[in-house]
Amino acid sequence: MTDLAHTLTSHLAAAFAAEGLDPALGAVKRSDRPDLAPFQCNGAMAAGKAAGKPPRAVAEAVAARLAGIAGIASVEIAGPGFLNIALTDDLVAARAQAVADDARAGAAPVAHARKIIVDYGGPNVAKPMHVGHLRASIIGESIKRLFRFRGDQVWGDAHFGDWGFQMGLLIADFEDRFGAIDPDGALPADADARLAAVTLDDLQTIYPEAAQRAKDDETFRDRARKATTRLQSGSVACRAIWARYRALSMAAQKEDFHALGVDFDLWKGEADVDPLIPGMVEDLRKQGLLVEDQGALVVHVSGGETKKKKLEDGTVIDAPFPPPLLVVSSEGSAMYGTTDLATIVERAKDFSFDLCLYVVDQRQADHFEQVFRAAAIAGYAKREALEHIGFGTMNGPDGKPFKTRAGGVLRLADLIEMAREKARERLRADEIGSDFSPEEFENVAHKVGIAALKFADLANFRGTSYVFDLDRFMSFEGKTGPYLLYQSVRIKSILRKAEEAGLKTGPIQIAHANERTLTLALDAFDAALASAYDKRAPHFLAEHAFNLAQAFSGFYTNCPILPEKDEAVRASRIALAQATLKQLALTLDLLGLEAPERM
Ligand code: ARG
Fold this sequence. Notes:
Layout: H1 4-18, E1 28-30, E2 39-41, H2 43-51, H3 55-66, E3 72-78, E4 82-87, H4 89-101, E5 115-119, H5 131-149, E6 153-157, H6 165-178, H7 189-197, H8 200-216, H9 218-232, H10 236-260, H11 277-286, E7 290-293, E8 296-299, E9 306-310, E10 316-320, E11 325-328, H12 336-351, E12 355-359, H13 365-378, E13 386-389, E14 394-395, H14 412-429, H15 438-458, E15 466-467, H16 470-473, H17 481-500, H18 513-523, H19 525-534, H20 539-558, H21 567-591
Parallel strand pairs: 5-6, 5-12, 12-13, 14-15
Antiparallel strand pairs: 1-2, 2-4, 3-4, 7-8, 8-11, 9-10
Helix pairs in contact: 1-3, 2-3, 4-18, 4-21, 6-8, 6-9, 6-10, 8-9, 9-10, 12-13, 14-15, 17-21, 18-20, 18-21, 19-20, 20-21
The chain binds arginine.
């Protein structure tokens, strides 16, 4: 299944070769001037230079060789030697038919499927999930679906943050509430019962209070640090507290993910690699990579690069960059980088992955550089098999990362409810769903709300930060999730009516400008997928969905479907609408959007 640009490229490459020129110069792309012709080839300029001929003469010779090739309607030479290529309606129709007949709607699978892990979401247990995790979840989910759709074997892993200092905070807090525990023994029965009685609501106040105390009270902070180490060194009592809080919090986070339409194959956390850490530390030591540094154990990862660093006393030094990876803290505990490194060891063993993608906030770029280099130095994974897919922040109107009015991080569950409420308002304002049952109305509001949030995020290149503006996200006009859902529902409804009227589809024929434009939009799917895949950037898919919806809109306005009198034309248009729906639904699914049946 090749798209039109590839079909044309093969003809142009042959023509260039026949002229004794580099066939690679025959590359054809979508035209920058679609008003002149839909496709163009700019190879004559470079070919002229290489062959010492005027580019226009080269272009003319190539154009002459293209005369009479089926599918090419005309080749015109513009400016210094641009080749503007127009297609016959037969070729356009054949392409539309191929997309219509293909279960993958015109998308080619990758030539070599790989084993890929996508590490995304990454919420921290006990802490509420915040909007920073929103982007990781939305972008990661889309990347996972995209890689899977293109044929790779993919595992999505939530990689819960469940082995760090926040767990020590909860243990220290627990002792203050319910009495000291024996770190070497099990939890006493009464403490066990108290722990079982803690609810999620309790946890939502316990954690922020403990975090605040750790800031204000050095003794408490110290106890929390020690508790973290005790937990990690296998204290049964600490484990019991940890397990209870973790389970409570993970259950709530699973619900948040579910509401967001985000699902993982592996619901693993940092703690899962705990058993691997002693062996890994031993291995690093044996390899001579572990270095003592102020009581801690680190791995040096800088290849001689340095960065200016200001010390506490104000002097500026050239410090190694990236800084060494902290493997064992001076307290003896495993750190964020330790669990990440051990997770690479585990993933290599369990999945022998070819590529591991970490969809995490751009602000963690240095952390990943440290971890990836350490993994490569230690021989746990190839450097190029590890990739950090960073992203910018979702900002408030002040241009800073989005906060609640009280200045705190907004919880994901609250954000989702906010979006749902705005969707309800919008639907009511447009009198959509006034005849729906309350359940159906809620279901549509949910889908519209989530689509608004997700699409607004995915429509920008992931590296770009954007401003949270629910009114704009929720609009039914312009580049928004609700607009796309609306378009897809509209096509569904047309097709439903066609079916009710007993109207059939038939072979696709192209005669109208809007039929051509729609087919060209359908034809762009594969290239959009390839760009999104290669750059790990779902905005190419968002862009495609929008272009396709717009092309359909123009088609629908100018090319009557159901009212069309000519039976063959009508059947062709129904087939085009079907192909569009299939491809739009696929694209929306890759973005993680779900369209309702009607709205
Ligand atoms: N829990 C981390 C955080 O909230 C994100 C985890 C990202 N994944 C990873 N393998 N480090 O910042």
